[in-house]
Each structure stands twice: as C-alpha cells, then as structure tokens.
Amino acid sequence: MHSFQLSAFGWRFACAAGAFAALLGSGACGPIGGVSGDASAAVAGSAGTSASGGAGPVLLPDPPAFKVVGYQPSWAGTIAALQFDKLNYIDYAFATESADGSVALPQPTSPLTGLVGKAHQAGVRVLLSVGGWNNGDDSAFNALSADAVARTKFATTLEGYVDQYQLDGVDIDWEFPGTSDAQNYTAMMQELSAHLNPKGKLITIAGAPSNYGSEGITADSIPYIDMVNIMAYDGGSGPDHSPYSLAQNALAFWQSKGFPPNKLILGVPFYSRPSNTPYSALVKLDPAASNEDQVNTPAGEEYYNGIPTVQAKTALAMTQGGGIMAWDLSQDTSASNVSLVSAIYAKIHATP
Fold it and tell me: Which residues are paired to 73 by β-bridges?
C-alpha cells in the first residue's frame, strides 16, 4: 500500500473515527467496502420500478456530452436529498463480488428499487457499483477474473440484476488491479460487455489517478469501458488531499494510457482530510468554509475542496475530459447556495 497513507486512493471507502467527525456526530462515509447490517434507512424513497413487476422501463433522454456522475452509498443519505435535476448518472454502491463470480446486493433491495424509480422519472441513469476498497482486499476480483467459469457467472449475475432492477449498467470498482491482473481484467470486461452491450447498457469503472493502482487497466480494455471515474483525491496528506494539480495530472495520465477524453470522468471529493468529515459538516460549522479548501476546527486543520476549487476542476474537465464525478452525494449540503453539486451545475451552465 502507498506509503503516504493506509489505503491510498481507496480511502473514499474507509471510515476513520476522527475526533472532529465524532464531535459533529457525523462520519464521512459508511462501513468499509459496503453495507453494515440492515440498511433500510439508508436510501429511502417512494418505490419506483418493482423487481417483481410494476411499471415498465422509462424512456430516458440522451445524456449530455459532459456528464455529472455521483456515487450514492447504500448506507448513507436519502433519495429526498438528491438533486436529480443536476445529475446524469448515479452509481449505487456497493454490491459485493465473490471469488466464484457471485455478487451480493446491498440489503434490503428496496432502496435500490426506490432510487431507480425516482432517478428514471427525472431522466437520470442508475448503475450498480461493484467492489469498493474493502480494506484493500481485492482477492475476490483477482480470483474471479482469472477463471473463465467465474467470469461468466459474474457477468450473467450482473446482467440479471440489470434486468431485474431496470438498471442502466454496472460500475466495476476494483481497487486496484496490478500488472499481473491485466490480461484477466480485460477478459472480465470483455465478458461483461458481451452480456450488457447488446442491451445498450453501460460499463464504467473506478480508476486511480496515477499508475499506482491502475497498472492492470490497459488499453486493451478500452473498447469495453464506457467511462472511467477517476478517483482524483487522497493523493497525499494535508493540503495535498486533492489539489488542482492532481486533477490535471490524473486526466493527462489516463489520456496517456490511450483512453479518449470523452470517457474520462474527473472525480472530486465531498469530504475532508485527515478526519473524513463530510463537506456538509464543514459548512455547517463555518459557512465561509464553502469558499476555502481548508478550515480550522476544534480538532485541527481540515483540508477539502470548496466551491472555487470544485468549479475550477469542473472547467478543467470540460476541456480535457468527459465529465465530473463526486464521492459521495450523501456528503453534500442541502443548502443550495453552498452545495457542491449546485456549484458544479452552475459552472457547467454558466453563460460564456
């Protein structure tokens, strides 16, 4: 693991019991790698398309050329808090893969059903995200991708979930494939594509912002991947948590791997370092924090991305990428004047 921190870029799926987060009574994220226990209160909302029948598929409008993607953890947030009118894709995190190719959905599944219904009514696509940091244990991906039978089971299972829940695709969040996984990674993506592409479904991935953690994702996999959600955060410590320079370097790096700019979705953090405190908690403590990238708290200095930096990164992605991504939507504030999702939307739609 990278020397500068325990879980490198995968920190977005880990939770630290930081003193400041405890002080505010809010953690920045949920359990490491997925759901803990009963998540019935996680993403609540009125039911949409039922997995056992109900309404038919909704005809969605074509997405814009520049896309806004947000991860929605199964263990945090509510449907009511999501700004559907400012999003194009929501990645519901996380389903859990096994070495034999089976995949377990976050339980209960009713929040997913409700999310798909609400999102589709608003013209927003929903993808099932599989994997996550999982304490750095990617052995299940290592094993299933190396086994042709398991790869087929993996793809077939996900195809079944896509059909059952009327999803718009899957997001593969393997953190992080190494050089020895490259051939198997491509084979796994090819198998997924064979099952989902004929149905017009998307296959996206989460990728590290540098070669460290993405060695196993090569140009051979490009034909099977629709978008790369670049985790351009946790690139250091303190003020280097997610600087503008990391965003620049990350986009340039993925282009150097051969991925076209329109497939590159630049990730921005909705949380701080070192305590993993949600942006919403920071601006609640100090509204002026929305226009800064650091703030003094009772527990010490916190580093994050405020509105100016998020908008600058959005402008960068508009010229060198295909979209902007947030980890995670539940950490944004509901106050529209300081909301990061609203700031991204305002930047995209600003008068030239």
Answer: 93
Give the burial string for 59-74 (b: 16+ CB within 10 Å, else e): eeeebeebbbbbbbbb
**Distance of alpha carbon 4 from alpha carbon 154, whole angstroms:** 34
User: Is residue 22 classed as helix, strand or coil in its secondary structure?
Assistant: helix
User: What is the pLDDT at residue 335?
Assistant: 94
Q: For 248-296, write each residue's pLDDT tens digit.
A: 999 999 999 999 999 999 999 999 999 999 999 999 999 999 999 999 9
| Cα(291)–Cα(269) distance, integer angstroms | 15
Kindly state the helix (H) or strand (E) to which residue 172 belongs, with its residue range.
Answer: strand 169-174
Q: Are 314 and 344 in contact (CB under 8 A)?
A: yes
Query: Minimal CA–CA distance to 70: which of 315, 272, 341?
Result: 341
Q: How far apart are the first and last CA of the chain?
A: 43
Indicate if the alpha-carbon torsion angle 209, 200, 168, 184 is positive or negative.
Answer: negative
Q: What is the pTM of this model?
A: 0.87
In 10 A of CB 21, how many CB atoms? 24
- Please give the structure tokens belonging to residue 184: 């198997």
Residues forming a β-bridge with 9: none
Tell the CATH topology of 66-269+305-348.
TIM Barrel (3.20.20)
